[in-house]
Prior knowledge:
By secondary structure, the protein is of the alpha/beta class. It has 10 helices and 16 strands.
Amino acid sequence: MCAEAARRFLDERQPPTPCLVVDTDVVAQRAAAFRAAFPRALIRYAVKANPAPPVLDTLVAAGFGFDVAGPAELALCLERGADPADLAYGNTIKKPADIAYAYAQGVREFTSDAEDDVDNLARHAPGALVSIRIRADTPDSVTPFGRKFGCEPAQALDLLQRAAAQGLRPGLACHVGSQQPDLGAWDVAVVTAAKIAADAGGVVRLNLGGGFATAYRDDVPPLEAYARTIAAALDAHFPGHPDLLLEPGRAIVADAGLLRTEVVLVARRPPDERRWVYLDIGRYNGLAEAENEAIAYRFEPVDDRGGPSGPVVLAGPTCDGDDVLYQRTPYELPLSVRAGDRFDLPGTGAYTASYASVGFNGIEPLRTYCVGRYGDA
């Protein structure tokens, strides 16, 4: 759902494109919906999805905690008034100095999936809660993690025992992949974690991460369906289950964002019968999730002159040959489209500005404006 306040801001202010507008009132609404769906869960917003200070301010006011991936995100959350007790250091890849810094700031919850990291946590974060991240055989999400994170169940059991032996409080973590529309993935994750927990004699935390999908061009299950699936899986497979922690990012902020872009060039590239439409935004300045055409955004014309539409290839503005957004995914735009026409992309509040390059080809990072109660625009 597009934030109407964001569209009004764009139409009234006419800021240069490309730019992203985030409606913090929609962020607050999504936070309330998530709280209602998971009333007993600890919720830690994944800062990487959108770290704009007004977004964090909104979530601090909503009583959310934060999933941080490093010292910079941690410091930003503290600066915006977050309680360090409500921060979870979710990145399994971290330097000893980063662990020590987080612990000194009051962080007492971490995620790990390797022996050396567990040992570093025992040394630099004594007594902390450490959830061992497992890799479950879940269906692929739209943007899966591959084998970069998580360990096999047998190794997870060893790491739980290693952590407990060094005075750390053991938990389990599992992430079913970003933008996961298959509800069954959470059942698989809970079943896998429950068996490991039973073999370990119990754990104090179950962190099921994020992955709650947002509707872009295709429908996805409603948030309530995810909540029912997770609750049923816990009741069936994890009796007396530990405290549940969730780390939503996309599900909180995606629908709050509206991105506006302008057509730079329309060209023909025979023998391709489709027109190539080059935009002032591409994979390097906001649409990184179009890599492999994983996330297919909606393009809504601002300057709609009507008339028939035809197939197009959509590409970004840089001189990089990989900066093509959609060549296989079918898209149609009006046959009248020309340079200077503008399009709005709803549902772009997550993983756009935070993924944008610092300056590839001299293009500045994606400008972000925030509106609503906690807006800065």
